[in-house]
Design a protein that fits this description.
This protein has 313 residues and is an alpha/beta fold. It has 10 helices and 13 strands. It has a single domain, classed as Rossmann fold.
């Protein structure tokens, strides 16, 4: 069974993707970054996207946002946000779609906040293209309401990013992402640069904000313990492709792919000593100089209800 049919999108999904392929470089020397990714995100669902650094997670998110760099080549059999074809949408349509229907929370808040603009101006700049005809007082009221929803005082609006703590900056990014109540939020490791206490505060803020506006979310990261707390379903990426997709409980209680098993096995336990183990590196695909064509990509197969893994049955 091919992945495209095994995990086919369902009617009413917020996001549906079939056979998304992204590579970097020229067509004569292309390096694949995402290979035949097929998955969907249902309404009000948190989909966890997990994998090691370099597995293709961030490239996949940039492909959905249509913000890949010029040297990237992207194609897909299907990539739709609701009834909108993201592959066919032009620049003007994409600009209107971002923030209103599809928003993004980056890994580092300083990567999105302008260091020489006060927070207020950054909100006004974000909202300007999407609220034609709205009065300034109405816009300011909406901004203050959103800030209160992420536990920030209105005084933050008059501060510069460098005057805020890491956790406060990340909450500003969350407020920007939910300002126009999008259908789908992509959160790319939103707590990676924060201390443990700030991480919990930011995650609680993000979860409550998402529920309040009824948005779906793709939560990107490699922290399996974090995904266990937040995600309804999880997709495991390895070397640019999905190797396992399923409900969170099924992934943790009965992981089928060796890579998933090692990821879960790497979660520290305070109750027992454990061997983390490693993936065996056998076969032609691990030989020096092996090309991508040497990797035997197994298709995703259903191993239990709604649970798919790229393994031999």
């Amino acid at each position: 069974m091919h992945a495209a049919t095994a995990v086919a999108p369902q009617a009413g999904d917020v996001l549906s993707i079939e056979n998304l392929r992204v590579s970097y470089g020229s067509r004569f020397n292309a390096v694949p970054a995402v290979r035949n990714a097929t998955f969907s995100v249902a309404r009000d669902e948190v989909f966890g996207l997990v994998g090691e650094s370099g597995s293709g997670k961030s490239t996949l998110s940039m492909a959905i946002l249509r913000l890949l760099p010029a040297q990237a080549h992207c194609e897909a059999d299907r990539m739709r946000l609701g009834d909108t074809d993201l592959m066919a949408a032009g620049p003007a349509a994409l600009r209107q779609l971002r923030w209103t229907r599809l928003s993004y929370i980056p890994q580092g808040s300083m990567g999105v906040l302008n260091p020489v603009m006060r927070v207020r101006e950054q909100f006004l700049d974000t909202i300007a293209d999407h609220t034609q005809g709205a009065q300034r007082r109405e816009i300011e009221g909406r901004i203050e309401t959103v800030l209160a929803g992420v536990n920030l005082r209105p005084a933050v609006l008059d501060q510069f990013p460098h005057e805020l703590s890491g956790g406060m900056k990340q909450r500003v990014c969350i407020a920007l992402a939910i300002l126009l109540e999008p259908e789908l939020i992509i959160a790319d490791e939103p707590t990676s640069a924060l201390d443990v206490v700030s991480q919990r505060q930011v995650l609680e803020t993000l979860s409550s904000a998402r529920r309040r506006i009824g948005a779906s979310m793709i939560m990107i990261g490699h922290d399996m313990a974090l995904q266990a707390q937040l995600a309804d379903r999880i997709g495991i990426m390895f070397a640019g492709r999905f190797v396992e997709i399923g409900p969170t409980r099924a992934i943790f209680e009965a992981p089928r792919h060796p890579y998933t098993q090692r990821l879960i096995g790497a979660i520290p336990s305070i109750r027992r000593r454990q061997d983390i183990g490693e993936l065996a590196r056998r076969g032609l695909e691990h030989a020096d100089g092996a090309t991508a064509s040497a990797h035997p990509d197994l298709p995703l197969r259903e191993v239990s209800a709604g649970h798919f893994a790229a393994i031999e049955l």
